Amino acid sequence: MLKENYEKVKENIVRACEKAGRSPEDVTLIAVSKTKPLSDIEELLSDTDAVDFGENKVQELVDKYENVSRPVNWHMIGHLQTNKVKYIVDKVCMIHSVDSLNLAKTIEKEAAKHDVTVNILIEVNVAQEETKFGLSCDEVLPLIQEIKDFPHIRVKGLMTIAPFVDDPEDNRVYFRKLKDLSLDIQSKSIDNIDMSVLSMGMTNDYEVAVEEGATLVRVGTGIFGARNYNI
């Protein structure tokens, strides 16, 4: 069933790309495996071309990193506390949720200790929801200016978590705003700053996100089914 779900999402991404005149190769599907057992990841690894997986919790990411049968691209997509950075800084291909100078400084410090360079995205709370983390659009450029010279960090783009809505079209405005922000920052040609990655869109709205320029979509329920948060 996981294979069928995964392939269905991939098909939807292809269709959304065709609608927007984009190449499907420009969009990476991240299977959000949070709260799901390692066996589900192994099933996807054996039955599909999945290589990118997203986790929200540091401990869960570390456990799966240490036990998965072959290397995969781990994405830290959840809120990251500074005291947990040291556990994952050498294990992830990208941290999606950088939303403060303090966190960026901690990533830089721990990356230096491990002699690695970490790809990060700046998390933007485009919809200004009080219950979500992330910077306002106006706060993004000042943070980038502060961290652009950090030698062990590479800013690759932006991330947002759009509101949960009944109609995915309601989130188009937020995806478009994030895309516009990335283009504005890119136009400034800031050294060491790349805006090629837009992480936006989840199970409920990833097709609209792709139409608006997403390069990474984070799909959990659409692949793995509903989560049990009581485990």
Write a short abstract of this structure:
This protein is an alpha/beta fold. It contains nine helices and eight strands.
Describe this entry's structure for a reader.
This protein is of the alpha/beta class. It has one domain: TIM Barrel. Helix content is 40%, strand content 18%. The chain has helices spanning 2-20, 38-47, 58-67, 85-88, 101-114, 137-147, 172-186, 206-211, 221-224; strands at 28-32, 52-55, 73-76, 94-98, 118-123, 153-159, 193-199, 216-219. An 8-stranded parallel β-sheet has the order 7-6-5-4-3-2-1-8. The longest helix has 19 residues, at 2-20. It is globular. This is Pyridoxal phosphate homeostasis protein. The modification N6-(pyridoxal phosphate)lysine is found at residue 34. Keywords: Pyridoxal phosphate. GO terms for molecular function: pyridoxal phosphate binding. Belongs to the pyridoxal phosphate-binding protein YggS/PROSC family.
Could you name the key traits of this structure?
Pyridoxal phosphate homeostasis protein; PyrdxlP_homeostasis; 18% strand; 231 residues; Ala_racemase_N; 8 strands; 8-stranded parallel beta sheet; TIM Barrel; alpha/beta; pyridoxal phosphate binding; pyridoxal phosphate; single chain
The CATH topology annotation reads as: TIM Barrel
The H/E string reads HEHEHEHEHEHEHEHEH
CATH architecture: Alpha-Beta Barrel
The CATH class name reads Alpha Beta
Low-confidence stretches: none
What's the number of structural domains? 1
Number of DSSP helices? 9
CATH homologous superfamily label: Alanine racemase
Sheet-strand content, in percent, reads 15-25%
Spatial arrangement of strands, main beta sheet? 7-6-5-4-3-2-1-8
Indicate the radius of gyration in whole angstroms.
17 Å
The total beta strand count reads 8
Distance between the termini: 22 Å
Helix content: 40-55%
Calculate the mean pLDDT score and round it.
96
Q: What does the main sheet amount to?
A: 8 strands, parallel
Function: Pyridoxal 5'-phosphate (PLP)-binding protein, which is involved in PLP homeostasis.
Cofactor: pyridoxal 5'-phosphate
Protein name: Pyridoxal phosphate homeostasis protein
Organism: Coprococcus eutactus
